[in-house]
């Protein structure tokens, strides 16, 4: 394309200006569909990873009641006045559980009344004032989640205290917590972003436009996520992540567009010319930035069969709408407003502003590149070092606030009914065919159970061959051979622990599911797979953590290489340089590494836990790769803006030092403003109660702050000074293939008008 030829962006700007009424109608139609999508959206889940051993073990044992407690509610009944053997306690308990057992959503209720003596004794606390009832819900986890509110309303008593816990209760509490966190973050982030925008633009009209576009992008992105939940597994906090990314990029992109439009008007352009030029220049930067973010998020597609790939789709949807609204709806609004975009001018003083400040800073850095580079790199490396101590564990009930009913119930269960609260590691034994309980297989199951019981960290095993401590292997074999000799209780247990050729065991450990000790138990169980002519698989929450971490670690190299490789190609096409894209990749890695190290130091090791109000725990497995993919793209916002401006000056003057200094002068204020908005939005999410959302907000805020200060302002000029004219080198054949390079027709600054 020659300089005289109109670009596709100029054509788009002209079309938006001339057909702005159509743009408004189409936007309204999209919003109506978005509202319908939110109302008709699918159900979110806790997030799963398919294809792992833990997932296979759970699938094989599906339908075996002893295999999983995922759809079972643990209900603790308490009375300060009555003992559990008091007739009044028993009657009050029956008044609640009798109607609950008849609900269509409930498949079974187990309580001390009517349970076998050995089980009944485990359902009465040693305090004598508490009883545990197990309420199993029908269907899978999603069906149980839908049924939970109805069942919970039925589990009430005016005579006994009632506390409900279990995975279904945890999921429901986490869902409500995430909704509350999202609302609170939005209520805080929008005003914070508005304050920064008012500081940048000093007019109410210009400041409100990015806020409006951010709201539109988030609403449409959330709708996309809810619709995708019908066809794929969407983790609950995907909505929070999409809102976090959508708000940040939409407001930033709008900042670029509004800034350039005001600048064009100030230089005497007509409204139409200003719109066309804005979309052709700032719009081009927005498109490339959106492409960079999409490239980063596309790395999540390298985790097939997991909620991460679905999260990547959700993130890409909200970024696509942020770009779409920034290039269509926002220019159409600007076309209508024209000079009125500066409506509501505010008397905000220009603190710390000085013409040429960024130019002088860049020149000073380039005069002392090693003096700047070495200490700054040392600081970034020091911030990133704690990442070496990273530990991963999925979100569990400890992520809920202490006052949440499900969390209080879990603590009470651990204290009053330790055997029921113990961490359970699922062992699924798959035999080739036939019945799982035959004489030979009974002996094999017995031997395996006793072997597992002797492993360090194991306090017991529950299985069909562990019903009573005194029964021998020969006795179990005899029961397998003579079904008529079995007592009725044994047949009920056989149905609970076996189905066809599948038998299950539950290995109990006192260690928390996310602990290193529990993971060692999982690894120890997996050392010996053979059970007679069958083979065992290990599942449960701890095994899912082990497998999930291995899944993410195993797929991450391909995802990282893809994101970095494709980003390099995009930047090469944009910058026509071999070196600058490599430097950009290195800069991104530095800021992300600093963010990762800070996450481990803060959230895993507990520093600042008092200030940020959380309990230290291992990092959610998806968080590092999610942050990498999101931040790698977001960092390119500033990289594209800074380097394209430097390239303009290089093409015009072929003076490397001048190009670097002038590029920073022209974009430094805008990058700082955009970063301040990002940090404000992300910091609002640090106030969330859900630790995974809090960590996401803090991690992204730290990365953006590091990227816009130490990296872009100090390291970039220092490195570009050391590289000299080699920064701009590229093989001539490739440059000719891409259409050559020329100095831009307009090199006016893109900084916001003050």
Automatic annotation (TrEMBL):
<feature type="transmembrane region" description="Helical">
    <location>
        <begin position="208"/>
        <end position="231"/>
    </location>
</feature>
<feature type="transmembrane region" description="Helical">
    <location>
        <begin position="315"/>
        <end position="337"/>
    </location>
</feature>
<protein>
    <submittedName>
        <fullName>Integral membrane protein</fullName>
    </submittedName>
</protein>
<feature type="transmembrane region" description="Helical">
    <location>
        <begin position="585"/>
        <end position="603"/>
    </location>
</feature>
<feature type="transmembrane region" description="Helical">
    <location>
        <begin position="670"/>
        <end position="692"/>
    </location>
</feature>
<keyword id="KW-1133">Transmembrane helix</keyword>
<dbReference type="InterPro" id="IPR004869">
    <property type="entry name" value="MMPL_dom"/>
</dbReference>
<keyword id="KW-0812">Transmembrane</keyword>
<keyword id="KW-1003">Cell membrane</keyword>
<feature type="transmembrane region" description="Helical">
    <location>
        <begin position="237"/>
        <end position="258"/>
    </location>
</feature>
<dbReference type="Pfam" id="PF03176">
    <property type="entry name" value="MMPL"/>
</dbReference>
<dbReference type="InterPro" id="IPR050545">
    <property type="entry name" value="Mycobact_MmpL"/>
</dbReference>
<feature type="transmembrane region" description="Helical">
    <location>
        <begin position="623"/>
        <end position="643"/>
    </location>
</feature>
<dbReference type="InterPro" id="IPR000731">
    <property type="entry name" value="SSD"/>
</dbReference>
<feature type="transmembrane region" description="Helical">
    <location>
        <begin position="559"/>
        <end position="578"/>
    </location>
</feature>
<feature type="transmembrane region" description="Helical">
    <location>
        <begin position="285"/>
        <end position="303"/>
    </location>
</feature>
<feature type="domain" description="SSD">
    <location>
        <begin position="204"/>
        <end position="336"/>
    </location>
</feature>
<dbReference type="GO" id="GO:0005886">
    <property type="term" value="C:plasma membrane"/>
</dbReference>
<keyword id="KW-0472">Membrane</keyword>
<feature type="transmembrane region" description="Helical">
    <location>
        <begin position="21"/>
        <end position="39"/>
    </location>
</feature>
<feature type="transmembrane region" description="Helical">
    <location>
        <begin position="698"/>
        <end position="715"/>
    </location>
</feature>
<feature type="transmembrane region" description="Helical">
    <location>
        <begin position="370"/>
        <end position="387"/>
    </location>
</feature>
